[in-house]
Amino acid sequence: MALVLFTHYGAIQRGDRRSWLLIAAGLLFVGSLAGTVTEVAETNRSADGSGSTFSPAMLAEARASGKPVFVYFTADWCVTCKANEAAAINREVVQKAFAKAGVVTLVGDWTNGDPAITRILAQHGRNSVPLYLWYAPGAAQPEVLPQILTPSMLIGKAGG
Questions:
Q1: Residue-level pLDDT at 13
Q2: By Cβ atoms counted within 10 A, which residue in 4, 39, 97, 101 is the most buried?
Q3: pLDDT value of residue 160
Q4: Do residues 92 and 146 share a domain?
Q5: Order of strands across the sheet with 131-135?
Q6: How many whole angstroms separate alpha carbon 12 and alpha carbon 6?
Q7: pTM of the predicted structure, to 2 decimals
């Protein structure tokens, strides 16, 4: 957008109508794009159904079940988080592998800076999301997964 303004600066000063129309169209495009990103984030959160809401109590309960536990911390504004959710976590093949292995998935939403999640992030040397934790049954500590996930990585964790 700044490039458009810069390249048309002289025309704008002269009152060139086409430049004003181009700028107006650009602003409308940017505005509609921001709305689309918000809609996708809300749709992903409500439609994924891939996990329960994280809380320390839910984590303790899930770990006590003796099943593998996958915990991921995300936020609506986190582009990497949304990319991982779409490309890996919410893929049908991954969800089937998790279901087959009995993986318990917990989702921590840090969009509004939840203090409990902030503490978990700090415990793992992070100051922001994404953070992906894999608790193998009986393991004392989680394995911290990379910030970029692949379906094969998650399927492999599930034993598939």
A1: 62
A2: 97
A3: 75
A4: yes
A5: 52-53, 104-109, 69-74, 131-135, 143-145
A6: 10
A7: 0.71
Residue 81 backbone dihedrals phi, psi, to 5 degrees:
-60, -50
Phi, psi (5° rounding) for residue 11? -65, -35
Query: Domain containing 114 — which CATH number?
Result: 3.40.30.10
**Amino acid (1-letter code) at residue 45:** R
Q: Please tell me whether residues 63 and 138 are part of one structural domain.
A: yes
Structure tokens at 92: 């049908």
- Single out the residue of 90, 93, 74 nearest to residue 133, CA to CA: 74
Q: Which range marks the domain in which residue 29 is found?
A: 2-45
Tally of structural domains, the chain: 2
Strand-strand pairing, 143-145 and 131-135: antiparallel
Closest CA to 149 of 59, 100, 87, 93: 87
3-state DSSP assignment of residue 26: helix
pLDDT of residue 28: 53
Cα–Cα dist 110/55, whole Å: 12
pLDDT for res 16: 65
Contacts of residue 8, defined as CB under 8 A and 6 or more positions apart, other chains included, come to 16, 19, 22, 23
Residues 54 and 118 in one domain: yes
